[in-house]
Amino acid sequence: MTYKLIDSGEQRKLEQYGNFVLDRPDPQAIWTKGLRASEWGNADARFEKSWKTNSQIPDKWIAEIGNYNFEISLKNFKHTGVFPEHLENWAFIENCLKIVNSKFKILNLFGYTGGATLAAAKSGAEVVHVDASKPAILAAKQNAKLNNLEDAKIRWIEDDAKKFVEREVRRGIKYDGIIMDPPVFGRGAKGEIWKIEENLLPLLQSIKKILSDNYKFILLNGYASGYTPLAYGQLLASVFDLDLEGVESGELCITESSKRAFSLPAGIFARYSRK
Prior knowledge:
Structural class: alpha/beta
Mean pLDDT: 95
Largest sheet: 7 strands, mixed
Shape: globular
CATH class of the largest domain: Alpha Beta
Oligomer: single chain
Distance between the termini: 35 Å
Order of helices and strands: EEEHEEEEHEHEHEHEEEHEHEE
Number of strands: 16
Number of helices: 7
Helix content: 25-40%
């Protein structure tokens, strides 16, 4: 079964992941709920300070998001192992790589459980997937298997994003597309500290050195970063010498399946593609 946002409001969101309905916090949902309390009460699991379940939910199950299958589980701090708002970006990646008989090499930094990697690999690209978390990489490999991509050309690398890019610069390795979803704060595979306000600009400056002459796209995502889409767009334009009018930026949203169809903001993006 597919994913859908059933309802949102009063700093909560009600979502269906495959066979199960989850009630989770979301500070962006400051409006009133569209559905009655009784309908929210039918959720299979609710997150407050921890997960509370009303039914027999397995440790892991499968949900379809767009054209992809993902392994879902109730993780710490309300997460499920996938961010459905990135569906729009996966479509962007597929569209950028729709060129007959062309092979591209794509770098996915902070790759998490691999949604963007799946989109690139499904399009026939060779993908280098980098994340500092071993559990995230194992989950991404499982998601590739669920989508019959276990034999695709994907390199799974557990590493610090900054150090990996610096090594690629020294090696002279080039990529035809770059995907980035940096956290606000994080730790690398060996305890390296990542702070977005200090490290994002230098990382992008290093990434500029590993882009091929005819690269296809650059995609930068942000979640809870405190920055605006305009700031991200201008950042890309300044680092990569782009005309700002050619850089697309905006909010990543999920739209309710209900009649009122409210859109829940879930992050920001800036991206550039060569026509």
